[in-house]
Amino acid sequence: MRSSCGRSDRIESAFGDNLKVTIFGGSHEPEIGCVIEGLPAGAIDGIDMEELQAFMDRRAPGRNEFSTPRKENDIPVLKSKDPLTFIIENKNARSSDYKKLGNIPRPGHADFTAHIKYGDDINMAGGGPFSGRMTAPLCIAGGIAKQILKAKGVTVCARIRSVHGINDTPINYAGVTANEIEAVSAKGFPVMDDNAGEKMKDEIRAAKARGDSVGGKVEVVAVGCPAGLGSPMYGGAESVMSRVFFGIPAVKAVEFGAGCDVSEMLGSENNDPFTAAGGEIKTATNNAGGILGGITDGMPIIAKLAFKPTPSISIEQDSVDMETMKPAKLVIQGRHDPCVVLRAVPVAEAAMALAILDMMMEGK
Ligand SMILES: Cc1cc2nc3c(=O)[nH]c(=O)nc-3n(C[C@H](O)[C@H](O)[C@H](O)COP(=O)(O)O)c2cc1C
């Protein structure tokens, strides 16, 4: 796994052991993009570009009242097959919104830490390389990985699990099917219980009307993943996936299977009993989320990602002018998502698909 961010000829950040994905650019740079190395030769020729565009459209901004009004078509342009490189042109950046911030860092955003580390060396307009916009190239690579996995019988799909404490219906972690998760992730507002979905929408609308924001959780599931992926400790499936999940801006916690709840269970409640049905060893429950000892056990892989509320809110906040070192009041006027969770659903799918494909390519 590698990750770097610095101004050489361009800012970039990379991950992957067997499949290397490098994301480059910034929110208000002319372009953002990705380089994907390690795919089998010719793999890109088997990719359905219309399906990839439909996947990108699920994340794209400006599509509904729950997303930033910034209008970007997010069309992947193939720049090179070797190394496999895609770019997306940034067409609707409005840097004037960010000039108004001056030397005053937004609470909850990366302005302060980016200033400490890079000074004026990077363009932080629109959040620069820290922006949610950097998940668009992640979705190019992840959309390709999803199609490759699908051809191998692995389905990766996600849904909104909660928004500001309003929960969708739990799924059966042991029995969840590919059809079930595909149906929910294909919805415009991907929840199983549409009544809960309406309450979540009202919660986002109410926060937005107050100039505030809300967070929530995304649940991402892989069905059909073979047993035996991953290795002990740092090569474990949870470690490999978490690295990619935590690269998604605004993710503050990741849980696998029963997650944090395991700390309140008895061993006899948490352990998933083994069963031998149809010549296959499975488990009757799936509190482990498909992973034991860092290695996949053939059950559905289940992860939950907790997203914080969008940091850029228009309510007045306390900050500091970093030049004068005096207290400063901040009112943010740019275009922002009142809740990032809806747009993060395909991003979580992209991240899990890439991590699984990376592990599947071990030794290939
Ligand atoms: C899809 C997506 C969209 C986002 N949109 C915004 C946004 O409109 N405004 C904002 O301030 N942060 C947004 N974020 C979150 C910030 O990029 C993130 O909180 C910030 O870079 C600080 O990083 P951290 O929260 O991981 O510490 C978004 C994140 C994602 C995944």
Descriptive notes:
- With 364 residues, this protein is α+β, with helices and mostly antiparallel strands.
- It has one domain (12-360): Chorismate synthase, AroC fold, CATH 3.60.150.10.
- Helix content is 27%, strand content 23%.
- The protein has helices at 49-59, 96-99, 111-118, 135-151, 178-185, 194-209, 237-245, 267-270, 341-360; strands spanning 12-15, 20-25, 31-37, 77-81, 84-89, 155-163, 166-167, 216-223, 251-256, 274-277, 280-283, 291-292, 295-296, 301-307, 317-321, 326-330.
- Strands 1-2-3-5-4 form a five-stranded antiparallel β-sheet, covered by helices on one side. It has a five-stranded antiparallel β-sheet with strand order 7-6-8-14-9.
- The protein is globular.
- The two termini are 17 Å apart.
- 44% of the residues are buried.
- Residues 1-9 have low confidence and may be disordered.
- Flavin mononucleotide binds next to α9.
A few lines on this structure:
The protein is an alpha+beta fold and 364 residues long. The chain has helices at 49-59, 96-99, 111-118, 135-151, 178-185, 194-209, 237-245, 267-270, 341-360, and strands at residues 12-15, 20-25, 31-37, 77-81, 84-89, 155-163, 166-167, 216-223, 251-256, 274-277, 280-283, 291-292, 295-296, 301-307, 317-321, 326-330.
Instruction: Please give the count of helices.
Output: 9
Order of helices and strands: EEEHEEHHHEEHHEHEHEEEEEEEH
Fourth-tier CATH superfamily name: Chorismate synthase AroC
Strand content: 15-25%
Largest sheet: 5 strands, antiparallel
Shape: globular
CATH topology: Chorismate synthase, AroC fold
Q: Quaternary status of these chains?
A: single chain
Q: How far is it from the N-terminal to the C-terminal residue, by CA?
A: 17 Å
Runs in which pLDDT lies below 50 for 5 or more consecutive residues are 1-9
* CATH classification, class level: Alpha Beta
The total of beta strands comes to 16
Mean pLDDT: 93
CA-atom Rg in angstroms:
21 Å
The total tally of domains equals: 1
Bound molecules: flavin mononucleotide
Helix residue percentage: 25-40%
